[in-house]
Amino acid sequence: MSGHNMENVISEALSGDAQRNALALASFFRENDVMCERSSVGYWADKIYFVCNYKNQSVCYISINEHENNTWYVTGDDSDSDWYANYPLDDNHKEVAWENIDVCGDCGGCGDVNVASRKTIFGKEFDRVCLVTIKFTNPDADTIECMKAVFGARIKYIQQNEAV
Where are the alpha helices (H) located in 14-140, listed in sequence order? Predict the structure, then answer.
């Protein structure tokens, strides 16, 4: 499914503010040529789960929980890179991003390997950061603006490093 189809799924699965905010993020991705495709493999095959890529590189993942009304979340890419370490976000966006750092909860999602680590994220150090680094759950309109800045930074990083 392309980004446009993601918007149809969002319109069917979410309502009210959750729908409006998810559609705003979907629109941002469409405008920036981020392709969001519904996963059809493994654990995610029967879930509402989108993999969002820019130029075949991971930007984020979007999950809509159809079993809990209006629940959705967005996680960062599998952040082995340090593109976010010192990226110059404005202070408001940094604060919102920091509030959404995904600290390892020992959920077992990473398998037997504990990948939680110390990471610098937008100029601040955090301990026990999960593999996905950042997770926005049921973001409000202000958080969506932060997400646009964060994922816009990821897009810029990919653009700057594609020729390298």
Answer: 16-31, 91-99
